[in-house]
Amino acid sequence: MTQGSESVRFGKRTADTVLQRFEQWARDTPGAYALIAGPESLTYGQLDERADRLAHRLLASGLPPGGLVAVGTARQPELVVALLAALKAGGTYVVVDAETPLTGQRQLTTAEPFVLLTHLAHRAALDNGSGLKVIRLGAEPGAIAGQRGEPAEQPEAQAPALPPAPAPGRSAALLFTGATEPRAVPVSHGLLLAAHDSWAEVARLTPADRHLITAGTDVTAFAAGWTGALCSGGALVLPRRSPWKPEDIRAAVEDEHVTVLHTDPATALDLLKGEEGPGTAYRSLRLLAVSGDRLYLDDQAALQVLLRPGARVLNVYGLAESAGTGAWFELPQLPRPLDDPEELSLLGTPFPGHRVEVRDGQIRLTPPGAGDAIPTGDLGLLREDGLLEFGGRLGDRITLPGGRSVHPYPIESAIRGHEGIGSVIVNGVDSARGPRRLVAYVAPPAGGSSVRPVAPLPDVEELRAHLSGKVPREETPRTVIRLRALPRNRAGREDRAALPLPVQPAAKAVARSGSTSGKYGAATAGEPFPASCAVGCGGGLGFVAFILTNLFWPGSTNLTGVPQPWAFLFTVLYLFECAAFGLGVLFLFGGRARMRSRGRGRRITAAAHVAVSYLLLAWWPQDNLYRLAAKQDWPRQAALVYTFNVPLMIAAAVVAAYLVAKPADPFDFDEDDD
After folding, report:
1. How far is it, in rounded angstroms, from Cα 174 to Cα 83?
2. C-alpha 632: how far from chain center
3. What whole-number distance in Å separates Cα of residue 417 and Cα of residue 421?
4. Which of 24, 458, 478, 637 could bridge across to 462 with cysteines, CB 3.0–4.6 Å?
5. Do the Cβ atoms of 496 and 183 come closer than 8 Å?
6. Omega of the bond prior to 565 within 30 degrees of 0, cis?
7. What's the rounded Cα separation, in Å, for the pair 5 and 671?
8. Angle at 373 between CA 213 and CA 188, to 5 degrees
9. What is the DSSP code (8-state) at residue 420?
10. Is there a contact between 230 and 281 (Cβ–Cβ < 8 Å)?
């Protein structure tokens, strides 16, 4: 089955570009605000002028036609200047994550740009010494760095002329997908413009609109979505120096009278939770566009109710390959009320100029002029009422023992029918006690975001009763983990890789009873841990630390590209660090009793106990943080030295003092000793 959507705009489209659209607004309304960011706000005329100057610097650096320009900075006004400059210089832009240096470095390695535009504060974190040419944003025109960071030759006084408008088929941007393994996707000038025209028609954009995009700048929603504001004469509201925080978004929407808010489902529900009643949230908003992850119908209805009458809530489905467009849904598209809205996520109809088909259960999308249909990796259904329904992701499929494959989305939707659950992920977890089993991670609805009554989260028995008759028994989760909120990535998508592991029953018993027992015997508070427990329990805690490393410090143990035998040696080092951490936890809670039996003073024993614990515990976080710090990031290097190295020296000195201290007189009674 296939859906298609045409528009008169696409039949009369000219060969212009998003850059030409912006430049036309800069000529027609030079005094109108283009970027709103407090003191760094810029009018269309100022933005165009600054982008021109930076484009000349790019050309002076030798940027070839179509050359790739990477942009990495947390200062979003400068980032937008850099995007426009790259297009003005005839290049292709790609935005990299400057807030997470390891991610940014990986993106740079994948993209292999000709030059990097960044600020001095971000350069040390992004530039890994590969010889990449760097142009400092905000610096003098001659501040172009060579391979070793030395200033390059000053550009000629005569600025080169800016190139003519590129052909529609030439690449304009390189966008990163939001998948588990991100890919770099080229987007042409023609497709970037078509996506803007399509979005402008659906959203009914006007020059009076003020747009706010909450996604990270390297996410498609921003990296391609900035055109919605600057190619329609509107203003783009930006944070001043860092990514958006919920409280900053709320303030900006109200203070700057934002009319178009583009965000993900979790952020939308978080922003509107706690509102007093219908129509009370954000009086200036006329359009709330939600993308990045599944939006269930009941939550979409709740968002609609909280906004003022006449405001629209769109569920937007798009890909990096289509510059963020694809299909869209709003409640008036429904021909009739639907049962079980908490179990449905509707994607609606294609954007103008797009086509959507479902082949072998998978959604395939054809953007304007893109040729072959793009397989999305998502499952879907074209309903009898003509609307596209989301059916889960192929990549989330779980393989159970015996080779049986289970799609978690139908199970998750059925679980979400429980009135106490707002969001849920069903994942396959390998158990030390047996084969892989299904685990349900559940979280409550955001306050005020659901039309359902508030109820407690269910336990496993209550969940089984709820799913009886809805889900096959063998597909019913055997474990329920209750969370405050599900983990999400920068694109706002539920992050299955960041889910915590289930707590084993023995550990639960320990937590409830306050004592430790099991095959290694028992230990009560105040008694020293047996040697067997130190080995077994310490090793277990070390293993947990190893598993949690990528949760706390994503990518710190990534050895991609490290040759043997060095990769093996580093892996062994990581294991030793985690084992030391496990032993440190045990020593912290059980080592003092053994130390006091040595007969040294109470105070020096207490200090030495803390010092030894720190010496064992510190290596795991210290080394992971060091691996994520750029060699030339001097502020971070100094912070790490004073946070870890100096305390390690102090701890070693305390241990030395303890070792040389004389045992206390056995007849010297201390009333604080038991």
Report:
1. 11
2. 25
3. 7
4. 458
5. no
6. yes
7. 85
8. 50
9. T
10. no
What is d(CA 460, CA 479) in angstroms, rounded to the nearest whole number? 6
508: tokens are 């639960």
The owner of tokens 């009018």 is 43
Cα(360)–Cα(16) distance, rounded to whole angstroms?
38
Cα–Cα distance, 540 to 555 (Å, whole number) = 22
Q: Indicate the helix (H) or strand (E) that contains 487.
A: none
Lowest mean pLDDT among 8-22, 419-433, 521-535, 599-613: 521-535
Give the Cα separation of 175 and 219 in Å (integer): 8
Sign of CA dihedral 118, 124, 127, 132: positive
In which element (H, E) is residue 470 found?
A: none
Residue 643 CA: distances (Å) to CA of 55, 614, 638, 650 = 42, 12, 8, 12
pLDDT in tens, 9-65: 444 444 489 999 999 999 999 999 999 999 999 999 999 999 999 999 999 999 999
What proportion of the chain, given as a percentage, has pLDDT over 70?
78
What six digits make up the tokens of 332? 């008036």
The model carries a pTM of: 0.72
Structure token digits, residue 113: 């740009």
- Confidence band of 490 (pLDDT split at 50, 70, 90): confident
Give strand ranges (E) for 553-595.
none
Interior/surface letters 331-356, b for 16+ CB within 10 angstroms, e for the rest: beebeeeeeebbbbbbbbbbbbbbbb
Q: Identify whether the C-beta of residue 453 lies closer than 8 Å to the C-beta of residue 419.
A: yes
CB 119 within 8 A of CB 75: yes
Q: What are the tokens at 487? A: 């983990």
pLDDT 10s digits, 273-284: 766 567 677 889
pLDDT at residue 139 tops 90: no
Q: What is the dihedral of CA 48, 51, 57, 59, to 10 degrees?
A: -80
Q: What is the pLDDT at residue 560?
A: 61
Residue owning tokens 């937007």: 316
The CA distance from 530 to 492, in Å, is 46
**Over the stretch 531-550, which tens digit does the pLDDT of each residue have?**
445 455 656 666 677 677 76
Q: Are the beta carbons of 98 and 627 closer than 8 angstroms?
A: no
Cβ neighbours around 308 below 10 Å, total: 14
The Cα-based distances of 512 to 517, 525, 635 in angstroms read 12, 14, 43
CA 580 to chain CA mean position, Å: 31
For residue 404, the number of C-alpha atoms closer than 13 Å in the C-beta half-sphere is: 13
According to DSSP, residue 645 is labeled I
How long, in residues, is the chain? 674
DSSP code per residue over 289-327: EE-SS---HHHHHHHHHHBPTT-EEEEEEE-GGGTT-EE
Q: Distance (Å, rounded) from C-alpha 259 to C-alpha 519?
A: 63
pLDDT average, residue stretch 246-262: 93
23-37, 170-184, 285-299: range with lowest mean pLDDT: 170-184
**What three-state secondary structure class fits 393?**
strand
Strand segments (E) across 67-120: 68-72, 92-95, 115-118
Closest CA to 350 of 182, 374, 336, 221: 374
The mean pLDDT value for 500-515 works out to 52
Which residue is listed with tokens 């390891």? 102
